[in-house]
Amino acid sequence: MIKKDVFDKQQFKKDVTRRVRNLYRRDLEEATPQMIYYAVAYAVKDFIIDQWIETHKVYKEKKAKCVYYMSMEFLMGRALGNNMINLTFYDEIKEALDEMGFDMNLIEDQEPDAALGNGGLGRLAACFLDSLATLGYPAYGCGIRYHYGMFKQVIENGYQVERPDDWLKNGNPFEIRRDEYSQVVKFGGYVDVEKGEDGKEHFVQKNYQSVRAIPYDMPVIGYGNHVVNTLRIWDAEAIQTFKLDDFDKGEYQKAVSEENLARNITEVLYPNDNHYAGKELRLKQQYFFISASVQRAIVKFKETESDIHKLPEKVCFQMNDTHPTVAVAELMRILIDEEGLEWNEAWAITCKTCAYTNHTIMSEALEKWPLELFSRLLPRIYQIVEEINRRFVVEIQNKYPNDPAKVASMAIIYDGQVRMAHLAIAGSFSVNGVARLHTEILKERELKDFYEMMPEKFNNKTNGITQRRFLLHGNPLLADWVTNKIGSEWITDLSHMKNLEVYVDDEKCQQEFMNIKYQNKVRLAKYIKEHNGIDVDPRSVFDVQVKRLHEYKRQLMNILHVMHLYNEIKEHPDMDIVPTTFIFGAKAAAGYYTAKLTIKLINSVADRINNDTAIDGKLKVVFIEDYRVSNAEIIFAAADVSEQISTASREASGTGNMKFMLNGALTLGTMDGANVEIVEEVGEENAFIFGMSAEEVMAHEKNGDYNPKDIYNENMAVRKVMTQLVNGYYSPDNPELFRGLYDSLMDRDQYFILKDFDSYCEAHKKIDEAYRDSKGWARSAMLNVARCGKFSSDRTIEQYANEIWKLEKVSVVK
């Protein structure tokens, strides 16, 4: 049981009042909600700072091994509420603000979501940091301090429009700038070999451009344990911001070239790489934060250790997907060029320090860099990668003599490209997938040759989510109900949820549970009314698909089914159907034409259906603009049905499926990613499974025997919705608007949307039938909550810490 610290309510009120006066020269009565937010945030930060300092003192005293979790994304969400919860002061602060006349919800709404991530990759990283701190494991998250995130999504005339997400406009009260830890990162130029005083050859990068990497630290608070870890995000600044001599010569661009380089690196997450300049900027971003993080980690290691050979005993670099994998070569550069080690000893240290998480089954998503770009931008790193590759190819040839196909499949440099996943596998001691099915597919298909050669490296760590963010904070009504039933241990040990099973057949408990769901649906309906202007019925089924928009996630199949359902209602006006609200939320990458066109289709269908009074509210369609962590919490709590409908074999894991399950939604999904394990836990009778299996999908791909035209010709319902894509039914002003979607399905249907369509429709009919049985639905929903224990990121992190990182828990006593 967590022992709570003492909270001095009166002192807190004084602190907030004082900060409003000092920051804004206002009395409380004159302060805006935003001013109150900043005053509260700085007051909360005061609680954090002492614990933060003490945590790192203890880590240093104990010389604790630390994991550096390296990720291009950290989708943290708002910090204030989460920090208050993990300090265990949320209710007390809320009460204090109530007494001062301020609404806690309104105060929290003043905080912009930190625009440091986009999708599941970044949210997973955020959940992992929360769990690392809560479990007491020493860790740094390492990333980039993006000024404008990926983008703020605005829907105009049904189209996605990208706007800068200026989340730092008013400052971030929880971050601390650490100039004393800045590092220099070099790009371009060439490498010279010089003889040093020791007679050895030294590699020296010359004629390079450089930027200064400045770390900003954000606290990551463990729940009720006084542990505060750090998310370190790097910003870029010019070393010399303005060169007056160049300016005086009339070379104006050159005068500010370093400043422009620095500014571009940290402006946006995932710049559009449909062109060469975008690719170059992405590679610069990746090397920038990795070089800064690794350099600083080595300096910190040497503060307490004198022997660099002990690095693997004290440091682990966990590379979250392929973006950070240049860490392998950067560590080698530092060990050889700066620490003076020979190649073999440097490689031995590197291979015991680096670990790699693979997040994608699709080979096209495994990063590859053009040789010309990589070698020009990172000349010394390229030399090192070239030597790693040469030695690795020799290993392959020794293991598989006279087999050039193995070299072609596994080489790091091949066919004019640097293959980053291959570099990661060669240079890591651990390679893990993120769901059991995903890991098996990696071993049997995508990375089969690597698994055959080095099976000891491969392991699975099924993803998880933090219940503190997605239940305790996101769904306080359900969180309180659970605590009243089984106690509060679930907050730090989600396996306790199994104790709810004794209540699933209790009619009173079922009614309480479904009433909470209804209240959460009312809350979401209010949000939809305020942001979309659409009235939705909280008594309807809330069928939800919210996630990054990609063709394999099949939002297109979802909206095609909605079109089909609408056709059915129009043809049979008396059709008996449970009213359903289909809710979408998704961002599409700025350069992803098909994904953006899918958003336009969803909104066009919504416009037609929502304005058709003849269907008597049986269907509503809502696209929630700018899907992000803060509105996700509201959405998960309100959902009845969780759409997890990716093409089987394509989704590595998924974590949205777990957040829905935690909040009592039933899964409608394929047997893909972590859906497989969710169904194992909850039972197939408490989910709605459809579609081809991963094996069937892969067999069709291997045999090339699927023709979508066959389904089009044989299935009248499919033919009708397909025709509506190109006859102007949903785009009367431009009948050809959705031709691209039509052609993608008719020509190839790469993700088997038409193949799975009938099965998907049948699953929806089963949902309609099941929802009519209110007791049966309540029982299934409650069982989803009761059986979600496996899917906590606490469990995942325990496995990483014990099986990969070999970390020890550290206790911080106040």
Helical stretch tally: 34
Mean pLDDT: 95
Distance between the termini: 17 Å
Largest sheet report: 10 strands, mixed
SS content category: alpha/beta
The total strand number stands at 23
Overall geometry comes to globular
Rg over CA atoms: 27 Å
Report the uncertain regions. Answer: none
Assembly type of the chains comes to: single chain
Helical residue percent? Answer: 40-55%
Strand content: 5-15%
Name the features.
six-stranded parallel β-sheet; 814 residues; 14% strand; 34 helices; alpha/beta
Walkthrough of the structure:
With 814 residues, this protein is of the alpha/beta class. It is built from 34 helices and 23 strands. Strands 1, 2, 5, 6, 9, 10, 11, 12, 16 and 17 form a ten-stranded mixed beta sheet that branches. A six-stranded parallel beta sheet has the order 20-19-18-21-22-23, sandwiched between helices. The protein has a three-stranded antiparallel beta sheet with strand order 13-15-14. Strand 7 (190-195) and strand 8 (201-206) form a beta hairpin. The longest helix is centred in the first third of the chain and has 30 residues, at 33-62. It is globular. The chain starts with 8 loop residues before the first helix and ends in a 9-residue tail after the last helix. The model has no long low-confidence stretch (mean pLDDT 95).
